[in-house]
Design a protein that fits this description.
The protein is α/β, with parallel strands linked by helices. It has 15 helices and eight strands. Strands 3-2-4-1-5-6-7-8 form an eight-stranded mixed sheet, sandwiched between helices. Helix 14 links the parallel strand 6 and strand 7. Helix 5 packs antiparallel against helix 6 and helix 8 crosses helix 15. The longest helix has 42 residues. The protein binds guanosine-5'-triphosphate and magnesium ion (MG). Magnesium ion binds next to helix 9.
Length: 382
């Protein structure tokens, strides 16, 4: 009886062990079968689910890769010279500022009410209080002195150009000393257009036949590097990137190293725009710059500012200028803004010239900033 029980228990135990072993083997076997196809996806899924920009990236990457991997169809970016002219209509059209001012200045009687309306227009265009006062004072004096011989349009044009600063050095420092590449570090609040501006700037450099490498030092989101890669691929510019969550400084370092190894002319480094707090920002951007400069100096720190955010955006941008030594401003989304005055306000508040303006979402909708052309565009007509 005792032995029978023992045999039975052993039999049950054996069956149980076999069953468990069977399950485990199936699970183990199933795992490798599931794994291979899912491995590439392990990196991919966070991208689409992560941000709104994701759809744009795969849509553009896919058609280019399978076709001709060795010789992708490269786009020919537009030459620089014609850009501000081409984009002129977008400024004139959106602003209405020039037309409004000219209308008021051309009145027979320039009474106090008229001058007040002129001030309101200028303040409304984000020019800022002090520059508005300066401009109005300048206009009043000139129109009084020159009397009826004054042509309001000419006077306004000259005073506006003076205000924008025709003598500021607006050249983008994209070249390094000797054989070293120039390094452009792009910073700014999130959503202002940093990555887009890096991509557009790369196209300008390509149009000027400068060899360029991009560094995706926004490692905060996988989609950020993806977005930049898409820009690079379209014009055959290499993009150095790291895994999501990598140290931005190390990616920036690698990008510049690659630039030096490849003897390129310019390396442009995109960064993340989170404005957590000033100390954190200072740590991160400060480190990125320091680490790059172990190899070669950063030649341009470009602060990207969204023109539509007006004075509010300016306050945020100011924090960046306190953290890194900003040398130039790229003012984006001027196409959608009726606030041309922000150009003057930002230069005054940050003490740095506007060097580039973004005038649309098209890949070549970025132009070097020229005060006279800008003012002419604002005034419209000819
Ligand atoms: N209309 C217009 N849109 C622009 C311009 N520049 C950028 N944008 C748009 O602004 C949006 C944000 O641009 P991004 O380049 O992703 O901005 P970012 O600063 O890199 O954003 P984060 O990486 O999230 O900090 C995109 O939809 C761009 O197409 C411009 O000059 N005009
Ligand atoms: Mg970005």
């Amino acid at each position: 009886m005792g032995t029978d029980w023992l045999v039975l228990i052993i039999a049950i135990a054996v069956v149980a062990v076999l069953a468990v072993a069977g399950l485990v083997t199936t699970a183990v076997r199933r795992k490798p079968r599931d794994l291979p196809p899912s491995t590439p996806d392990v990196v991919a899924p966070p991208a689409p689910s992560d941000t709104v920009e994701a759809p744009e990236a795969p849509a553009e990457v896919e058609p280019e890769t399978p076709g001709a991997p060795a010789e992708p169809r490269l786009e020919q970016p537009e030459k620089v010279g014609s850009r501000l002219q081409r984009l002129r209509a977008r400024l004139a059209g959106s602003s209405g500022l020039g037309k409004g001012l000219l209308g008021l200045l051309s009145r027979d009687q320039l009474d106090e009410d008229t001058w007040e309306s002129i001030e309101d227009l200028l303040i409304g265009a984000d020019l800022g209080v002090a520059p508005t006062q300066e401009l109005v004072d300048g206009l009043r004096t000139r129109l009084r002195v020159e009397g009826s011989s004054a042509k309001p349009r000419e006077v306004l044009r000259e005073e506006l150009i003076k205000l924008v600063g025709p003598d500021m050095d607006r050249g983008l420092r994209v070249s390094g000393e000797g054989d070293a590449p120039g390094v452009v570090l792009v910073v700014g609040v999130n959503g202002t257009g940093k990555t887009t501006t890096v991509g557009k700037l790369a196209r300008i450099l390509v149009a000027e036949e400068r060899r360029t490498v991009l560094g995706a030092a926004d490692t905060f989101r996988a989609a950020a590097a993806e977005q930049l890669s898409t820009w690079g691929e379209r014009v055959g510019v290499e993009v150095v990137r790291g895994p999501e969550g990598a140290d931005p400084a190390s990616v920036a370092f690698d990008a510049v190293k690659e630039g030096i190894d490849q003897s390129v002319d310019t390396v442009i480094v995109d960064t993340a725009g989170r404005l957590q707090n000033k100390a954190g920002l200072m740590d991160e951007l400060g480190k990125v710059k320091r680490v790059i400069e172990k190899q070669t100096p950063v030649t341009e720190v470009l602060l990207v500012l969204d023109a539509t955010t007006g004075q509010n955006g300016l306050v945020q941008a100011k924090v960046f200028s306190e953290v890194v030594d900003v040398t130039g401003i790229a003012l984006t989304k001027l196409d959608g803004s009726a606030k041309g005055g922000i150009v003057v306000a930002v230069q005054r508040q940050l003490g740095v010239p506007v060097k580039l303006v973004g005038l649309g979402e098209g890949p070549d909708d970025l132009a070097p900033f020229e005060p006279a052309a800008f003012v002419d565009a604002l005034l419209g007509g000819s």
